[in-house]
Amino acid sequence: MLFNRVLIANRGEIALRVIRACKEMGIETVAVFSDADKDSLHVKYADRAVNIGPALSYKSYLNMDRIIAAAKETNACAIHPGYGFLSENADFAQACVDNQITFIGPSAKTIAMAGDKSVARQTLIALGIPVIPGSDDIVSSADMACTIAGTLGYPVILKATGGGGGRGMRIAHTPEELVGAFAMAAGEAKAAFGNPTLYLEKYIEKPRHIEIQILGDSQGNYIHLGERECSIQMRYQKLIEESPSCFVDETLRKTLGETAIKVAKAVGYTNAGTMEFLVDRDKNYYFMEINARVQVEHPVTELVTGVDIVEQQILIAAGEPLKLRQDDIVLNGWSMECRINASDPADNFMPSPGQIESVIFPGGPGVRVDTHIYDRYMVTPFYDSLIGKLIVWAKDRPSAIRRMKRALAEFEITGIETTIGFYGRVFENERFQRGDIDTHFLDSME
Amino acid sequence: MGDNTYTLTSPVMGTFYRASAPGEKSLVEEGQAITPSDIICVIESMKIFTELRSEHPGVVKKILVENEDPVMKNQALIEIELN
Fold first, then answer.
1. How far apart are CA A212 and CA A440, in angstroms?
2. Which domains, from first to last, does chain B contain?
3. How many whole angstroms separate alpha carbon A317 and alpha carbon A393?
4. Of A53, A96, A181, B44, which is most buried with the most CB atoms under 10 A?
5. Overall pTM > 0.90
6. For A410-422, what is each residue's pLDDT tens digit?
7. Active-site amino acid positions of A
């Protein structure tokens, strides 16, 4: 049976995205908000809204007890966690279950497996799924790192076991560099994640970031919705995403899709999820990690497949079997997304919070804007710098690029610095237009 | 403020932290001697953490902002008595 009321444990554009899906499905919505967000659109659009505390995330959007209490007070029978915040927190998923609330996402056990990269890695190696060659376990010293690097071959990269987002990562081209990098990476990992343990991988040069969107229901049916290419990144943060990828042919798509489903089955994954891969110039692919939640860039998949991913998440969590079969999934046309961030491209992409004076949104055929901002909206410094997403659809990649350029030129935000103008330059770039991109593209463009 | 005082200001609108992580002890106390390599406070803005150091050696004279308080760009944070 479908839920009659869902609480959205998030804010900003993704809270709006979930509220919109619920409304179209006839489900009542409960928003939660911090003191900093009382004038936000998610508060206005939801049927009910509950204040969950002060601005700082750990006192509000990360406060599990307060959010569970809000769900109970309002008789919400399910919680959608969005992305970020508590979305990949196994304890929160379990707390929902313990309070007879459905968590709209994978099980706590699956989230825990997906979140510990060394556990996920060992599970997948055992299944014969290609992973980036590296230490099969934690590297406990710089000496040990050098020994392993000697067998892998340089360059190598050190990564934090508990981490992500580029923190606790260091690349080394020689044993001398590796010794210094080890201390730096361990320190950063301890500071960022409270866990200094590291592992070591062969560093793949000029890779593409390709990810597969999957859906799995509680009956054990799985499909994939094709790939997204997310190679346009700055310091491991994605900025531009597209679907399909001009680098992925039918054969590679089928292989990656089947591999993603194999990964999902191995960790008992239900609901919508993403399997991230690195693909090198010779189309060798390596599994990277599971994103156990809806992703920021999900709309590009929606626009080429016609599948409403958030609606599917809710249906799956309610126990419905997937009605879609793999054969139903056809990638039609081309979609691209730009993340509109409150950051200053002229100042090394430093945060640029502040009051927006006015906004003019782009429109016209094939343009979608997912955002929570409006005229005179205050972009506070308390949360992520993402203030919106501009997504376009067109019949092919060159048309999508032209449409994105047109939409970016229409999009005007005054009062704060944003990434809008910077994207105009990327879309003018001849290498970008040819599709000759990799995860270091933006470094080489500057 | 005399010539011998230097005031550390916030480079960005954000949240002022006296410690490097919640629950950890404060990086500096009033009266403490500091060198330019010491991190004396942290500003978080949009999930980006910026560690601030004094440009000059000296002694922490007065901490002007409470831990976890919101701060504006260029807001005075800490007065340092220069050596």
1. 21
2. 5-82 (2.40.50.100)
3. 29
4. A96
5. yes
6. 999 999 999 999 9
7. 293
